[in-house]
Hints:
The chain is of the alpha+beta class.
Amino acid sequence: MTADWNAQWREQIMPTLADQTWDLIVIGGGISGAGILREAARRGWRCLLLEQRDFAWGTSSRSSKMVHGGLRYIAKGQWRLTRDSVRERQRLLDEAPGLVEPMSFMMPHYRGGFPGPRLLGGLLSVYDALAGRRSHRFHDAQQLRFLAPGVKEDDLLGGSCFVDALTDDARLVMRVLSEARADGAVVLNGVRVTHVRRDDGRVSGVDVEDCEAASSLQLRCGVLAVATGAWAERLRPTEAPRQLRPLRGSHLLLPGWRLPVAQAFTFLHASDRRPVFVFPWEGATVVGTTDLDHRENLDHSASISGEELDYLLAACAQQFPGAEVTADDVLSTWSGVRPVVGGAAGDHRGKPSNETREHVLWEEPGCVTLAGGKLTTFRPQAIEVLKACAAMLGRSFIDDGAPVFAAVPPHAVDGLSTNQWRRLAGRHGRDLPRLAQLLAELGHETVGATATLWAELAFACEAEMVLHLDDLLLRRTRLGLLLARGGEDYFPAMRTLCQPRLDWSDARWDEEIQRYRALWLRDHGLPEATP
């Protein structure tokens, strides 16, 4: 059903959107909106999701890639959040292998440092109890030197090891959306909501603009769900209090050979005692994250600052002094804006790291807005939103615990390793048979040293609503992050493969290349030097 999800299908479906009253319209194409849509669609609701830019364009493609319970939330007394997170983490590990994968995390301990092995061991015992399984252990200094060559050795006592998980966050969004579409939902990117319609004090629909064709429509719905992350307050009534505190988290991506790590390392930054991570992802090494108030215009993509670059390089020097990592080693950067709910009446004076990651719902007749929350808990957040929506529609709603993801159809593909097959099955799910056809046509060659196959690029162009080149290289695949200079060396080969499938003219392709280069330098390159 998803093979027709292309530009031509979009042009056909757009004029029909106003022909019916939708049970539910979801605004926001990140993981929260995708989760809401998926749970509504499998219950037979007539539902539509609208995203003004691209799916996973915001925080959901720029997170720390972690599916975790939030160990530090235990110390803050956020027991329910941690419990829900570890349970959802295990659910995702079970349902989406190859997309959500377990990762060993190591926290080194040093003489006089905090937290010590005993304190952290106690927290990890609680963490394991909430998850229902033991996964932590302590390695002494000698063992740790063997497990983690290059880690700082001065005053090293050992390290505590535990298990969480990592994902490709943008592909997670795409797979959840694919599940929703298979159950009848309609999903569109490049469609901006310009106005929320209210009749007799109740939300009744939205005015929308097709950002690609400059046309407009009025759509009707029984209930509206707003899941726009850091932008969640924009569609609220003007008299509603403002509570969101946008926080920016920035990351560096290094070539795997430059700072090779076999597991994730977490430690407290010497400058502010915030947790920082260094971990392997997609064959490269991620260093992150920062936690700063984001005061720039939310309509512009977030990007790393010089201060954040220095902070993360200092983290590398602190924990891996022999590596001598510099800015010249950085492959790419990314920054996301977390939609954190601040203190009462928008009191944002405390440290960003102290803000809760709990979510809240804001309700008005005919509309439910989700604010805050975590990637890991997108499913229970969606259930909570839909319970509120169902009450407004006069329907009953229960959490039946059904899987988010359908079982991947068995499909043999000659020439793929077990790991390649697992990866493709996790990222593409129901679409695997169509991808297998492209593999038979195009072969199993990967793009450079990445794990991404050329056939995956072709599939995205044909079936995943690519409107612009950055959709393809930064979200359908992650080649724009993993390849030097955003993939510049591969543009000629990409043109040959992708331009016909996207049905772009030569002029359009050239425009997209120029647009992408400027976007990549601004949002994923290094910050300009301060004079």
